[in-house]
Amino acid sequence: QVRLVESGGGLVQAGGSLRLSCTASGRTLSTFALGWFRQAPGKEREFVAAISRSGDSTFYADSVKGRFTISRDNAKNTVYLQMNSLKPEDTAVYYCAAVITSRRAVITDDSEYTYWGRGTQVTVSS
Length: 126
Prior knowledge:
Elements: E1 3-7, E2 10-13, E3 18-25, E4 32-39, E5 46-51, E6 58-60, E7 68-73, E8 78-83, E9 92-100, E10 115-116, E11 120-125
Parallel strand pairs: 2-11
Antiparallel strand pairs: 1-3, 3-8, 4-5, 4-9, 5-6, 7-8, 9-10, 9-11
């Protein structure tokens, strides 16, 4: 069993930055593809960013491209989401997700992920 715990959320003004972390316990993340998703009040969960098992491929939603960066540190069993130039529309609960895979590609479909964290709230004020 893998347990994912997000941290780093909070309240920030528009234009500010936050770095989210997601640390896993129970199993090394080196064989997992990883992703970040978010859900705003009254909206469906949406894809934000994904990183391949090796870490050499990343993919972003158009809404965050150029502002957010996903990275991973397998030695620390942690995946990060650096969020810059935050906008009020980035306000949401952010979730990390993981799935064991032999594929080299990123995974953007939330239905393919097996493990989920409980989320961390990000609020961006205008």
